[in-house]
Amino acid sequence: MKKKKIISCCLVFVMLWAVFASGVLKQRASAVTMSSITSDSIKQKEDQIDQARKEKENLQNSLSNLQNIKKELETQRTNLKNYVVQLDGKLQQIEQNIAELKQKIALKEDEIAVTEGQLAEALEREENQKEAMISRIRMVYETGAPQMLDMLLKSANFGDFLNKADYVERVISYDQQMWQDFRLIREYVELCKEELELEKEILDEAKAGVEEEQQTLEALIAQKNQDILNYETDINNKEKAIREYEEEIQAEEEEIKALEEMIAEEKKRILASSGVVLTYDGGAFKFPVASYTRVSDDYGMRIHPTLHVEKFHNGVDLASPKGTAIYAAYDGVVVAATYSGTMGNYVMIDHGDGLYTIYMHASALYVEKDDIVVRGETIAAVGSTGRSTGNHLHFSVRLNGTYISPWNYISKP
């Protein structure tokens, strides 16, 4: 009789403990979920996926629209100078888009490598956790759950019962934590897969964007070349085109002269304060382009290719593929690295003793005003900006305020 009472009491204690343990376990599981590193990682991964979606949407909206650009430029075709300036601005913007897309591609490839690493690590953790759970389930199946109840019923006293009950609680808590960890790892794996898929989609779209922008660029350049030729060869525009050409060459001359006068004044100030002045030592110039195909137009009097009138050509046109490196012909100081409607993107270098070199129609400039450059340094890239109908470098040399033949300083490679 006494033994039955003890068993009944123990069962009561077991039931009470179960109710108590259930509440404690829920609190602990909640606390672990909120504070665990894995949960934070999941939240961070969800934020990264949201960011990737926004990045994909922004990428789709950033590409140039060829038809819209042509429509914007349509009103400027009757004014060749304004048309060229506006079109070159659009081309510069597209070049920048292409550069940014290529940079995005490089960054996205790095991000994909990181995400693939995170996915591989998460898959490994998932597999390890699954194996641990299988082992645990096998052990519970083999030993049997009644052993825990038997262990509690065999307690020597109430204190021993509480100690064993605490042990049982720890075992149950461990099992629940193991399951919770597996669930979180599984969720993290799926998020890694989703992020990886999004990043690969962004990478593919960025690569397609580069091709699309490149096609838009080439279409606009071809359109520009054709429009300039049409404008200059149209009999109705012939006199106007000749007059505009002469005005533009005069404006170009005035711009260069103004730079020379400004530099001369600056040299006087430097000489007055320090006695140091830049001088040309007579060394040989480096040929100014890395890839040369032919002289498309030489220095001196010539029949203009589209106006068909005799005009003075103040430099040599060196035909080269777009993007070819343009070199500083000799050591000096950059006095201009800017854009004009006729010269396009151009660089002007002071070599001392009244000697200057000018590099016109570049697609990109790599130096700035006041930069010191050395012979052979890459300063720009060949292009067709300004009043130009094909990729080439227009290379001019000025001495004491007058254009002179560049062949006095360079020779064909």
Low-confidence stretches: 1-37
Instruction: Tell me the radius of gyration.
Output: 39 Å
Q: Termini, distance in Å?
A: 117 Å
Fraction in beta strands: 15-25%
What does this structure look like?
This protein is α+β, with helices and mostly antiparallel strands. The protein is 62% helix and 15% strand. The chain is built from 7 helices and 13 strands. It has helices at residues 2-35, 37-62, 66-74, 80-143, 146-153, 158-233, 238-274, and strands at residues 294-297, 300-303, 310-313, 316-319, 325-327, 332-340, 344-352, 355-362, 364-365, 372-373, 378-381, 392-399, 402-404. Strands 1, 4, 6, 7, 8, 10, 12 and 13 form an 8-stranded antiparallel beta sheet that branches. It has a 3-stranded antiparallel beta sheet with strand order 5-11-9, with no helix packed on it. Strands 2-3 form a two-stranded antiparallel sheet. α2 (37-62) runs parallel beside α6 (158-233), α4 (80-143) runs antiparallel to α6 (158-233) and α5 packs antiparallel against α6. Mean pLDDT is 75; it is low at 1-37.
